[in-house]
Amino acid sequence: MLSGRRLDLLNPSPEDIEAEDIAHGLSRVARWNGQTKGPHAFSVAQHSLLVENIFSVLAPSASYGDRLAALLHDAPEYVVGDMISPFKAVIGGDYKAVEARLLAAIHNRFNLPSPSTTALTSAIKEADRIAAYHEAVTLAGFKEEDALMIFGKPPVDLLFNNELLTPKSSENAKTAFLRHLSKLKG
């Protein structure tokens, strides 16, 4: 890792996980394989901020720990990159096992339960699905009817910060991610 840490993908240690490495990596991983509007790619760091924001709107009484879990839901991608779900399914169990071990180590590093409760995981997945819908329509050129077919209809009354859907430079995305992570860690 850029921090100098060595991360064993087969047996990741929480001691080898640094917030700076996560933020740096996620800010340079493009969502939608870079096929988005704007002068910059829409990064996984930005997606993570959007998901946490939507999660907070859906669950306004969520604890800081639950919000941190939402922010870190795709954190393993700082090492393995972002792959679309159908491709992950084709790759199968080995990929999912590596991703699960990384997420468990990340949760351990930030004192979060691993695995998260089923209810929390479901709530984060719902926020992730809503984020994907908005990203698809706003950034990735999807027609609304196609996005509705794939992601379903998001709640009509959902209000979130639209600034979160503006692609930023990797440095700005990294800074925003680290700032929010620090706020949620307390």
Written description of the protein model:
With 186 residues, the chain is mainly α. The protein has helices at 19-27, 44-58, 64-71, 77-80, 85-91, 93-109, 118-138, 144-151, 170-185. Helix 1 (19-27) packs antiparallel against helix 9, helix 2 (44-58) packs across helix 7 (118-138) and helix 7 packs antiparallel against helix 8 (144-151). The longest helix is centred in the C-terminal third of the chain and has 21 residues, at 118-138. The protein is globular and about 45 Å long. The mean pLDDT is 92.
Précis, in short:
56% of the residues lie in helices and 0% in strands. It is mainly alpha-helical and 186 residues long.
Q: Ranges with pLDDT <50 over ≥5 residues?
A: none
What integer value in Å does the Rg equal? Answer: 16 Å
% residues in beta strands = under 5%
Give me the strand/helix succession.
Answer: HHHHHHHHH
Q: What's the number of extended β-strand segments?
A: 0
The global form is globular
Given helix and strand content, the structural type is mainly alpha
Q: What is the number of helical segments per DSSP (H or I, 4+ residues)?
A: 9
Termini Cα gap: 25 Å
Round the mean pLDDT to the nearest integer and report it. Answer: 92
What share of the residues lie within helices?
Answer: 55-70%
What about the largest sheet?
none
Secondary structure: elements and pairs:
Layout: H1 19-27, H2 44-58, H3 64-71, H4 77-80, H5 85-91, H6 93-109, H7 118-138, H8 144-151, H9 170-185
